[in-house]
Structure formats: structure tokens, C-alpha cells
Amino acid sequence: MRSLLFVPGDDARKLARSLVSGADALILDLENSVAADKKDSGRQRLRDFIFSARQREERPLLYVRVNGLETGLSGPDLDAVLPAGPDGIVLPKSRSGADIQHLGAMLAVREAQSGLPDGATAILPIVTQTAASLFGLASYAGASRRLTGLAWSAQELSVALGALTSRLPDGAYAAPYQLARALTLIGARAAGVEPIDAVFADFRDEGGLRAECEAARRDGFSAKLAIHPAQIPIINEVFDRRAHPHAE
After folding, report:
1. Is the pTM of this model over 0.85?
2. How many domains does the chain have?
3. Residue 137: inside a domain, yes or no?
4. Most C-beta atoms within 10 A of its C-beta, which of 15, 83, 124, 126?
5. What is the per-residue pLDDT across 146-162, written as a single tens digit (0 to 9) for each?
6. Distance between CA 73 and CA 93 in Å, rounded?
7. Which domain holds residue 232?
8. What burial letters (b/e) apply to 105-136, b meaning 16+ CB within 10 Å?
9. Interior CA angle at 191 toward 162 and 216, to 5°?
10. Is residue 248 part of a domain?
11. Pairing of strands 25-29, 3-8
């Protein structure tokens, strides 16, 4: 994977457009982009969307971002979408490898109930959204064979730290977020999975996006999260391993 595009799980138009965005993977969101009173309808819409998308001859990988384990909503999320056979689950606010093991057990039960092969559903956690999560980044190694990567995020971490912003005036990350980024990269490589760089929020700033992608690729990241289809061509170009024959 080079590019992973977030798509609101209850927006039929954006879901349809995402299939032709060029993204290697879609992160179909049931968390932040779906209001509390729309969760049930969003789950059903995503279930139908995944069933339909899986019939396409060519398609991106289909990941679903469920609500965090601490919310009590992740179980109903999985109950709704697992029968459709998504390729993976994105776990927000993951604290450590223990959360991956917990989610893995939840998936195993539902895979059996849905007639899916054991272990068919990958797990991609977002691992820097709380202060405590930074201390758990060494624990992902060996946590689960389902683990496919580690992704990081600055926005929620800045809220958790009580920061005014995660960026310096020149656009670079402030020190706490540079640390989170580096620990995610190192933790992922230690676990033998892919390190995935955070979103670049200003989708109109193509120059800024390209510079951030090139810095991430230089440092060892293998993919980047996206929030808008317009970001996909640049991300795919920079992280295309064919353009970096000596990488890895």
C-alpha cells in the first residue's frame, strides 16, 4: 500500500467516488465522520457498500475504521461489517499490542460466525492518539499475525496534550509530534510491519503535501494517509517503490 484514503462511512456519493480515486486502500470511517445518531445507518450503508465493492474485478483494499475499544461501539461496528468481508479494520486510539490482541479475539469470533477464514481480517491501528500510547509502541512486535502496519496521527495527540497546535510557524511538526512520528516509524519496523505517515490536512497545498511525502519516504515510511482524493496522485507517485529500486 502507498495511499490510504479516509472516506465517511455514511456518505453515498463519496463512497462511490472513492472506488475510482486511485487509492490503494480505502479507510471507510465509522468513527469521527459519522455522528452518534447516524451510526446504525452508517453501519448498514458500509456493509452494503463492501458487499458491492467486493464484486468489482479491480478494487482498492477495503478497511473499516471502527470506534475505539473504550467506547463500547466497536462490537456493534464489527457485527455489522464483518459479514461483508472487509480486508481489514483500522483501530483508533490503540494503546498497545494488548489492544491488537483484544481486537483480534473479537474478529476471530465474528469471522467464524460469518464463515470467513480465521485471520482473514487484517488490523491497522492508529497508535499515537493519546499520551499513554507513545509508551506502548514497542509492544506491537509479535502482538498478532493480523497486524499489517502502524499509522500515526498528530491531531488527536495535540488535543490529548492540551497543545494549541501541532505545527510550527514554518509548517514543520513541533517536538512532541516529531517524537510520535519517529516512534511510530521505529515501532513499525521493529514489529516487521509497514509504517504509515499521518494525513496532510491542507489538500489544496500540493507543494506542502509533496514535501511531506518526500520527507516521509526518505525517513522510511512506506505509505501515507489521505483525506481527499486530490492527494492520491502525489502520494502514489512519491511512495511508488518502482521509482525507488534501492529502497527497503
Report:
1. yes
2. 1
3. yes
4. 124
5. 999 999 999 999 999 99
6. 13
7. 3-243
8. ebbbebbeebebeeebbbbbbbbbbbeebbeb
9. 60
10. no
11. parallel
